What we know:
By secondary structure, the chain is mainly alpha-helical.
Amino acid sequence: xxxxxxxxxxxxVVRVVFGLTLALLHGLPKVTGGVEQFARGVAALGFPxxxxxxxxxxxxxxxxxxxxxxxxxxxxxxxxxxxxMMVALYRHRVDPFARMELALxxxxxxxxxxxxxxxxxxxxxxxRHRA
Length: 131
């Protein structure tokens, strides 16, 4: 897949779009004012220290999404964001599929980023070639 120009470009588009949308549409709103409400939802899941874990999840979405988008520290960033999406899937396990669909899509792309890496069109590739 990554050997072809289409595969490289296709994976880059997926990585950038999913990373940016996770960061800007989900992480950023939580970080800039929605953490308290989000922490109540985390508390309802039974997590100890819900405010701490809400911040961890919000930052995993914001920072992790941005790092995946630019392709820097892609595997660890995607692992944190993917774990957050696993918790979101757990949260939505009793909801209709349409409520869990977005978490499933983000989880799938983050898992792919952990397995594949950022690819050649990324900051990870630039850093690796300088060393």
